[in-house]
Every structure is written in C-alpha cells, then in structure tokens.
Amino acid sequence: PRLPVVLTPYHHFFRTPSFRWWRSVLALLMGALLFGLVNLLVALPVVVYEVVTGARSSERLAEGEIEVTPLLFAANNVAIALTVPIALLTMWACYGMRPRWLSSVVGGVRWGFLLRCLAACAVPYGILLALELGQGVGEWRWQPWSLFMIGTIVLTTPFQAAGEEYGLRGLYNRAVAAWIPQRLTGALVGGLVSSLVFMALHGAGDLWLNLFYFGFGVTACRLAYRTGGLEATVSLHVVNNLASEVSLPFVDISDIFNRSAGTASAVDIAPQVGVVLIAWALMELVARLSRVVQETA
Question: Closest Cα to residue 273, out of 208, 197, 192, 204?
Fold first, then answer.
C-alpha cells in the first residue's frame, strides 16, 4: 500500500508498507534539483533582459551585486510559488501518493479550517502592522513601479508562501522524518532538518535573522504536526509575508534582500517573534475547536 495502514500523523505519512529508505533520498534530491532548475529558468531571463535594456548594471552584476528590481521580485515570487507543483510531483513520483495527500492527512485542503486560520493570524499581525504604519508611512512615496508591485504582491506572495510550506514543511519534513521509526524522534529530526534548510535558503549572514527563520520553521513544523496538514502553516506564512511587504510598493526595494551581519537586532525581531507566537497559539486553539483530524489510516 502507498498510504499508511495504521493511524499516522502528518510528518510520518511517508512511512507506509511500501516505504524504502532510498525513496526519501530520491525525493530530497529531485525536489532540490527541480527547485534550482526552475529558479534558474525563471530568474535568468529577467536578469539578462534587464542587462540588455540597461535597467541593470552589468559591471555590478559581474562583481556579484544583485539589485532587486520589481521585475526580479516578481520572478522570485513566481519561482518559489512553483515549488507547490514541484513538491506534489516529487511526492507522486517517489512515494506513489496522489498529490492531494501532501496538503493534509485527509487528502486535500480543508478550506474552512484554512480560512479560520487566516482570520486568526490576521488579528496579531493587523495590530503590529497598524503600529508600524503609524511610524513609517511618512517616508513612503508613490513610485513608477508602485502599481506593478501592488499587483505582484497581491497575486503572487500567497503562492510564494505556500510554495515554501509545501516544499519544506511538506515534502522535506516528511521525507526526513520517514527515516525515523519513532514518532516523536521523527517529528524532531524532520522539523530540525527542514527548518535548517529553510534558514539556509534565506541566505542571511545575520545571527538574529537566522534565529528568526529557524524559529519560524520549527513553529510551522509544530503546526503541521498538531493540525494534520499545511493549512495553518500556509496561513501563518501568507499573513507574515503580506504584512512584511506592505511598504515595498512605496520605497526603494533594491536592497531588500540584504541580510548581511548587522542588518537586524534582537529589538528588531522581537515584535515579529511575538506575533508569530500569538498566531501559533490562536491557530492551535482554532484547530482544537474545529476538531481537525490529526492522524489518519
């Protein structure tokens, strides 16, 4: 059988009678290679186009400096969003499970639960956003790219956030945990490895940013374990990213991916950590009240 035959939590769903150790090796390699290939195919044409049209300096590019433009921001979002079909295809190819089984242990997205989680996340993030807007709006200016950026953020950021969840909290978390027979140990190891990969992919050189990314990944893995699916983790990621990008259409974005040492501090990330923890607690409450299925056979 390609599906679990005993009650199984989300992270252990690949441990079926047909599981073999090499399936997870193949899944991890296939997912990484496809992700890298898609990113190259989507981003490279944008960079070449901008160099040819003069929108990007070829000299600075040769020195390794990559300025973020609205078009490159859009390409980055689209490339990461394509991780959703990559993860679904990889699971189907390596484990023989239909794509719907990556969303949850019931075989699909629980849309009602997803909407309730989005509402729960919107509360703490809305409060933090209101406080931040009161301090920084005066520095915003309407830019030639503002309308393009607004459309890009609204249309692609939710899918970009979902892509990271399906790839890391879904495919990678499960693939690693499948090697560990014990349920709790599998959850810990799968969560640790997928969270470290999540942190590394952000390419931060700052200690505080790395701690935040790692902690965010661990929280998301916990939510997937406790809720039996990715609805809560996708909700958290979508609201987090949308809230953090509200100012982007109205400011210079060329340096937004600068995460070198010293770009953040404990004071900077403390509010973000606070809203993540509050959103996590609210969604666990929503899951309990909704009586979501955590395990399935």
Answer: 208
CB 292 within 8 Å of CB 228: yes
Closest of 95, 73, 26 to residue 251, by C-alpha: 73
Is the Cβ–Cβ distance between 230 and 16 less than 8 Å?
A: no
Tell me whether residue 189 is exposed, middle or buried, using C-beta atoms within 10 angstroms of its C-beta: 0 to 12, 13 to 18, 19 or more. Answer: middle
User: What are the pLDDT digits (tens) for 33-42?
Assistant: 999 999 999 9
- Helix/strand/coil (H/E/C) assignment for every residue in the chain: CCCCCCCEEHHHCCCCCCCCHHHHHHHHHHHHHHHHHHHHHHHHHHHHHHHHHCCCCHHHHHCCCCCCCHHHHHHHHHHHHCHHHHHHHHHHHHHCCCHHHHCECCCCCCHHHHHHHHHHHHHHHHHHHHHHHHHHHHHCCCCCCHHHHHHHHHHHHHHHHHHHHHHHHHHHHHHHHCCCCCHHHHHHHHHHHHHHHHHHHCCCCCHHHHHHHHHHHHHHHHHHHHHCECHHHHHHHHHHHHHHCCCHHHCCCCCCCCCCCCCCCHHHHHHHHHHHHHHHHHHHHHHHHHCCCCEEC
> pTM of the full predicted structure?
0.95
Residues 23-68 pLDDT 10s: 999 999 999 999 999 999 999 999 999 989 888 887 777 777 788 9
